[in-house]
Amino acid sequence: MIEFGEFKGNKIVILKRDENDQYPFRFGKNKARLIVQHFEEIKKFAEEED
After folding, report:
1. Which of 43, 9, 45, 3 is nearest to 24 (CA)?
2. What is the side-by-side order of every strand in the sheet holding 10-15?
3. CB atoms < 10 A from the CB of 19, how many?
4. Nearest CA among 50, 15, 49, 9 for reference residue 32
5. Range list of β-strands (E), 1-50
6. 12 and 27 in contact (C-beta within 8 Å)?
7. Where are the domains of the chain?
8. Angle formed by the axes of helices 39-47 and 29-37, nearest 10°
């Protein structure tokens, strides 16, 4: 689930596992750019076996 919001006048993205997620992942434009820039490496990390 994804939502968009605002923090101190700046746009943010809010990622939730479900509607009741008490600890959503929130980030703004600068972190979003970093994620996009390094998406392939992040994807490989997420797909690794534990």
Report:
1. 3
2. 2-7, 10-15, 25-28
3. 7
4. 15
5. 2-7, 10-15, 25-28
6. yes
7. 2-47
8. 70
Say which range, 10-14, 17-21, 29-33, 46-50, has the weakest mean pLDDT: 46-50
Q: Which two tokens stand for residue 41?
A: 């490496």
pLDDT confidence bin for 50, thresholds 50/70/90: confident
- The Cα 36–Cα 30 span in angstroms is 10
Point out which residues pair with 13 in neighbouring strands.
4, 27
Pair of tokens at residue 24: 């959503």
AA identity, residue 30? N
| Residue 40 tokens, joined | 């392939």
Q: Within 10 Å of residue 36's Cβ, how many Cβ atoms?
A: 9
